[in-house]
């Protein structure tokens, strides 16, 4: 994962893994999918997959998704990436459309919460 300043990509609280909003940066910190929300969403979910794996979890552990996007028209492409990542697993999902995100390159940001168990 690319390093970020001022916070961690994820934290564990009890049996929960809280994943910070992920954007379309590759492991070296380069932007992926300029102007293409579907390509960005695919990278976002690759990043989420890496974070889940580091915690010993996978997509089926996710119990909540929040998606933030800047353009309603990007919804179908972002949804396709989400469904490709989760397969038949359908955790609760909330979506927001906003005027902008942290950088002008960012069309979509996704955060998740995963259940790791009681141990």
From TrEMBL:
Gene Ontology CC, one term: cytosol
Recorded GO MF terms: deaminase activity
User: Where does the record locate the signal sequence feature?
Assistant: none
Family indicated by similarity: Belongs to the RutC family.
UniProt cross-references to PANTHER family, sorted A to Z: 2-IMINOBUTANOATE/2-IMINOPROPANOATE DEAMINASE RIDA, PROTEIN HMF1-RELATED
Write the protein's name: RidA family protein
Supply the source organism for this entry.
Paracoccus suum
């Amino acid at each position: 994962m690319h390093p970020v300043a001022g916070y961690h990509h994820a934290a564990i609280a009890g049996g929960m893994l809280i994943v910070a909003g992920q954007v379309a940066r590759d492991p070296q910190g380069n932007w992926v999918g300029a102007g293409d929300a579907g390509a960005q969403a695919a990278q976002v979910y690759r990043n989420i997959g890496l974070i889940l794996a580091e915690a010993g979890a996978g997509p089926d552990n996710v119990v909540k998704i929040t998606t933030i996007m800047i353009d309603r028209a990007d919804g179908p492409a972002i949804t396709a990436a989400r469904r490709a990542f989760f397969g038949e697993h359908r955790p609760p999902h909330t979506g927001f459309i906003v005027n902008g995100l942290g950088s002008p390159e960012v069309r979509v940001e996704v955060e998740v919460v995963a259940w790791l168990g009681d141990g």
